[in-house]
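Checklist before submission:
- one chain only
- standard amino acids only
- sequence pasted in full

Submission:
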Amino acid sequence: MKTIKTLLCGSALVAAGAVQAADLEVTHWWTSGGEAAAVAEFAKAFNATEHSWVDGAIAGGGGTARPIMVSRIIGGDPMGAFQFNHGRQAEELIEAGLLRDLTDIAEAEGWKDIVNPPSLLDACTVDGRIYCAPVNIHSWQWLWLSNKVFEDAGLDVPSNWDEFAAAGPKLREAGYQPLALGGQSWQSTGLFNVLMATIAGPDVLTTIYGEADADLAAGDEMKAVFQAAANARDMAQGSNVQDWNQATNLVIIDKAGGQIMGDWAQGEFAVANKVAGEDYTCLPGLGVRDVISTGGDAFYFPVNDDPEITAAQDVLAATLLKPETQVSFNLAKGSLPIRGDIDLSAANDCMKKGLEILAAGNTLPDTNMLNTEDTNNQLNDLFVQFFQDTSISPEDAQARFVDIVKNKD
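Returned file contents:
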């Protein structure tokens, strides 16, 4: 960590003298319509300083982008900043001394007093030092419904998962795709984890993933989750899309009844000028439990030997958490802000639901905070196969799940 301390001292010296404007390459995987609109707010805020945001978007989602980012960093060609999810994804880079220690900036900006919930900053902390800037709260536990599809099918808009599952066959008879699900493996795992958190309950998810409880993974509560996943698999047959936002679009254009997807889907509805409560309905916790996970995104800053880049990194880290930046970015992204002291009067009905659940403290940690990337990849392999291959029984899938839990690191 000696190099990091040296760079931080160098940053302070540069800040004290004449700072040169720098072009800072920022890599991320925000490429859908709603995501692009949101990241543009970050770029706008940073460009208002003496520095310039150089966009390094990588299409294909985190599973595609993360290996590219890591390869560049360990290969000696680091970007100025990069997006990862809150959690354990950057552990090895931190241990290798390749990422900057942001503790001085966090203390100067008072992050410990403004980041809510504190677990988000805890997820950035290793051995008492802060290595990332959290920028939002994203939760997976949402069911998005097309009001028009249910109206045209002569059905009431569901208020919970059971009602939605019961409506599935009738939607298909009426010519609609009941459940939209993309082919990317992380979507299948995310859907399953939502069912686990809402049907079995948050404590079951955190105990299985946080404590590697294989007995609980093999039990009756999880048996009910796997049966619900089999029902979801039946409803998802025929989606024939790959990317998550393509699946969201099926709901937006009234071709599918619903989609289980994180609150980032809300950004796509916003770009399409759809109104929450009128054009679409959102059910946090699938309408089963008022619960959301506190995952989300954070920015890390690779160690570099250019004092001008280091100074620009300092400015960006601070800018990301400024009140005005948090408002503009999160309203566009569909996520919740990481500070509770800002004006969100412009929030729509869905964001307000999320804020109410957050205020009540009904949260659970994101799976990225509980699982390593290796464990998540094993789960991705299991669930993408399960959702695409109807010959895999719920019982067989549960047995494979138990093995993953038994051997998780």
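Reviewer check: The chain has two domains: 2-136+295-339, 142-293+364-406.
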